[in-house]
């Protein structure tokens, strides 16, 4: 089974940072559900977890999925249905980990955290790809909403991916990286799973 | 000047296809303005044109830009301001071409069309990157909303980029590629301008 076919994305709405650095719970964004499901499907991933501790938000996500997988949406656009069938909700990261483990014969996933800020001990995209292609177990890629994943998630991760580095915002300034999480997921999946000339 | 610093994105809302293949004008999506501006800024591009023949829609985009570059948004999030300063509106592709030419000492940009469907005569990402790095002129990357750019845009283009190829939707089926245009822009910019291990 290919690396992609045993890889999962988790989009965390908690614990994540707000602008000031405080740990908060963010609200689910409808387009994050759609765009990340479509990217996950395009690269052949096994699943996409929307993680939020707020029950009403999980219900909202399930209603979006339901519309497109059983409702009027299925007839309108079958490709959207194929993508949203990948989406699952989870109250916490541990629940997503348990679900992956259950789907993969009891093998826990390697947790790979992502973030926009520079930090030590990160792994590059090509080295991670080689490593996870060689390991038969599942991979769970962790993305944070808001101002990014809380430190506790980085501490719990097995690997931390290098940030996507941007150009300097102005001459002499540091690198600019202010991608939306939707764009960051698309780029990370392409770097790990994409093939092109 | 680097390839990125003389490259521009144009997001066309006309002429593009709807689901049935008819040529239509789509509505501007707020998040397309933001996400594509942020990705363009991250990769150090020179500008991002939102192209629509509808005057009220251009006014809407200008109001979004105004909020973030002169209004309350500037104080809230300076990085968002830096990104939205790249955005310009144009009624038609020709107007975007003229604006690029005026910004680049009279040199017309190479027009590079993108699309999700397989077609002949396409160029790969690495070959295009080499070609445009070697050529001192500007590049205008064309993306379509809706169901993609109309045939007339492909006919007018100097180069057509290979589609982003996906995994088969189901065993035995053709490749699945149903990325949002926001995700497609992020991936194309990363393939052309990104640097990573």
Describe the structure.
The structure is a homodimer of 197-residue chains. In chain A, strands 5-4-1-7-6-8 form a 6-stranded parallel sheet, with helices on both faces. In chain A, a hairpin with a 5-residue loop joins strand 2 (16-17) and strand 3 (23-24). Chain A has helices at 30-42, 55-69, 72-76, 78-84, 93-103, 125-134, 151-156, 181-193; strands at 7-12, 16-17, 23-24, 47-51, 87-90, 110-113, 139-144, 159-160. Chain A is α/β, with parallel strands linked by helices. Chain A is built from 8 helices and 8 strands. The first copy, chain A, is globular, with a radius of gyration of 17 Å. The A-B interface holds A 4, 19, 31, 34-35, 38-39, 41-44, 77, 79-80, 82-83, 124-127, 162, 164-170, 176-180, 182-187, 190-191, 194-197 and B 4, 19, 31, 34-35, 38-39, 41-44, 77, 79-80, 82-83, 124-127, 162, 164-170, 176-180, 182-187, 190-191, 194-197.
């Amino acid at each position: 089974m290919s690396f992609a076919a045993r890889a999962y994305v988790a989009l965390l709405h908690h614990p994540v940072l707000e602008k000031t650095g405080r740990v908060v719970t963010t609200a689910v964004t409808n387009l994050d559900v759609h765009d990340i499901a479509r990217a996950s499907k395009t690269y052949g991933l096994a699943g996409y977890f929307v993680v939020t501790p707020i029950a009403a938000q999980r219900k909202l996500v399930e209603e979006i999925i339901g519309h497109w997988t059983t409702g009027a949406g299925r007839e309108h656009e079958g490709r959207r249905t194929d993508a949203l069938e990948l989406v699952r909700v989870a109250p916490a990261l541990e629940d997503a980990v348990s679900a992956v483990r259950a789907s993969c014969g009891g093998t826990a996933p390697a947790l790979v955290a992502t973030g926009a800020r520079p930090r030590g001990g990160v792994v590059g995209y090509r080295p991670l790809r080689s490593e996870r292609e060689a390991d038969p177990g599942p991979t769970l890629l962790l993305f944070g909403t808001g101002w990014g994943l809380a430190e506790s998630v980085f501490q719990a991760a097995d690997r931390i991916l290098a940030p996507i580095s941007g150009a300097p915002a102005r001459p002499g300034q540091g690198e600019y990286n202010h991608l939306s999480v939707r764009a960051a997921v698309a780029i990370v999946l392409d770097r790990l799973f994409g093939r092109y000339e």
